[in-house]
Amino acid sequence: MLKVGLIGVGGISGAHIPAWLNLEGVELVALCDIRPEQMEKYPDIKHYTDFDDMLANEKLDILDICLPTYLHADYSIKAMEKGINVLCEKPISLKREDVKRVYDVAEKNNVKFMVAHVIRFWREYEFVKSVYESGKYGKLLSGNMKRLSAFPAWSWDNWMFDEKRSGFVPYDLHIHDLDYLVYAFGAPKDVKSFRSKKPDQDYINVTYDFGDFFVNAESSWYASPYPFTAGFRFQFEDAILSNEGQGLKIYERGGNVVSLEEAATGDTGEINLPKSGAYAEEIIYFTECVKNNKAASKVKPEELETVIDILNNL
Ligand SMILES: NC(=O)c1ccc[n+]([C@@H]2O[C@H](COP(=O)([O-])OP(=O)(O)OC[C@H]3O[C@@H](n4cnc5c(N)ncnc54)[C@H](O)[C@@H]3O)[C@@H](O)[C@H]2O)c1
To answer: Which listed residue, 190, 212, 230, 236, has the most CB atoms within 10 A of its CB?
Structure first.
């Protein structure tokens, strides 16, 4: 039984904690948050308000870091230096040099480290990657992605409103789509971006040129209470793959419209899609890497550096 601790019991921990609690072969033994009230809804798990206390009192195999962005690298390093494997929320850092710093410590201490880039585990996005790789619908011609939201007013200490701590829209929202693009298609050859940044709103519109095709992606924190919206449309030679609010649909050139479920249960056997939610899938993947002593290579340090290099120029 692997012992797991989680630090940062705020917004996103609500997706991680149930996944840990539902997973067999692991036990979520400890939570840590400087605000004790955040942990009250989990009375059966030990609570800490100080990270050093948690490290001193628990023998953890895995630490799940759901802290604000600016704490990710240092807390990952501190845990790994104690021999603990670390799964850390995105982004790894706002600074490129932290990627090497973190991975060096992982290697030196012989532990696994992975950034929880959940879109890499999201079945609709995985499906597009599999279609791109199989060539089933011909070549990819263009893509369109979006991730829109209202300005996040809910964060602890308003850390999201502080660009030095959060990195604003590029590091909070757009990183999901850019990280996916780098994962699925490699580094873009050229980037053109436009941005409207005000004290209480931030919008970016970026076109990535991959040579044979291009992808336009828009991301926002609007000042108005615009509902969270995320989706994509990819144009292949012989089909449009659209995930724009009604689940993934494949509009084939001949007129057929196929849902992801139909495509995934077809007899072609060419795709192997995750069966549970993406947050659970990333946690399952990382746990298996730890159990089987395999590198968590689905997320590569050089990809993280590519993403930071691009984000820092938007
Ligand atoms: N993968 C996703 O879909 C996704 C979604 C949202 C957020 N995130 C990422 O998750 C991270 C956290 O975001 P959030 O929205 O949950 O933030 P949040 O502000 O809601 O939660 C952060 C928590 O950390 C606690 N905290 C702060 N400093 C601490 C410390 N030193 N020790 C212990 N606890 C401390 C706060 O009290 C708070 O409860 C961010 O880096 C964000 O980019 C990822």
So the answer is: 236
Q: What is the 3-state secondary structure (H, E, C) of the chain?
A: CEEEEEECCCCCHHHHHHHHHHCCCEEEEEEECCCHHHHCCCCCCEEECCHHHHHHHCCCCEEEECCCHHHHHHHHHHHHCCCCEEEEECCCCCCCHHHHHHHHHHHHCCCCEEEECHHHHCHHHHHHHHHHHHCCCCCEEEEEEEEEEECCCCCHHHHHHCHHHHCHHHHHHHHHHHHHHHHHHCCCCEEEEEEEEECCEEEEEEEEECCCCEEEEEEEEECCCCCCEEEEEEEECCEEEEECCCCCEEEECCCCEEEHHHHHCCCCCCCCCCCCCHHHHHHHHHHHHHHCCCCCCCCCHHHHHHHHHHHCCC
Q: Which domain CATH number covers 77?
A: 3.40.50.720
> Residue with the nearest Cα to atom 39 of ligand 1?
10
Whether 115 is in the pocket of ligand 1, judged by its Cβ within 6 Å, is no
The reply to whether 20 and 105 lie within a common domain is yes
Residue nearest to atom 31 of ligand 1 (CA): 34
Kindly give the confidence (pLDDT) of every residue in the chain, 314 residues in length, as a single tens digit, with 9 standing for 90 and above.
999 999 999 999 999 999 999 999 999 999 999 999 999 999 999 999 999 999 999 999 999 999 999 999 999 999 999 999 999 999 999 999 999 999 999 999 999 999 999 999 999 999 999 999 999 999 999 999 999 999 988 789 999 999 999 999 999 999 999 999 999 999 999 999 999 999 889 999 999 999 999 999 999 999 999 999 999 999 999 999 999 988 899 999 999 999 887 776 554 444 444 455 999 999 999 999 999 999 999 999 999 999 999 999 99
Same domain, 174 and 104: no
**Would the CB of 82 count as within 6 Å of ligand 1?**
no
Q: Are 150 and 182 members of one domain?
A: yes
One domain, residues 153 and 245: yes
Structural domain range at position 177: 123-273
pTM: 0.96
Indicate if ligand 1 lies below 6 Å from the C-beta of 2. Answer: no
- Distance from the CA of 122 to the center of ligand 1, in angstroms? 21
Ligand 1 neighbour 152 (Cβ under 6 A): no
Q: State whether the beta carbon of 70 lies less than 6 angstroms from ligand 1.
A: no
Does residue 64 have its Cβ closer than 6 Å to ligand 1? no
User: Same domain, yes or no, for 142 and 106?
Assistant: no
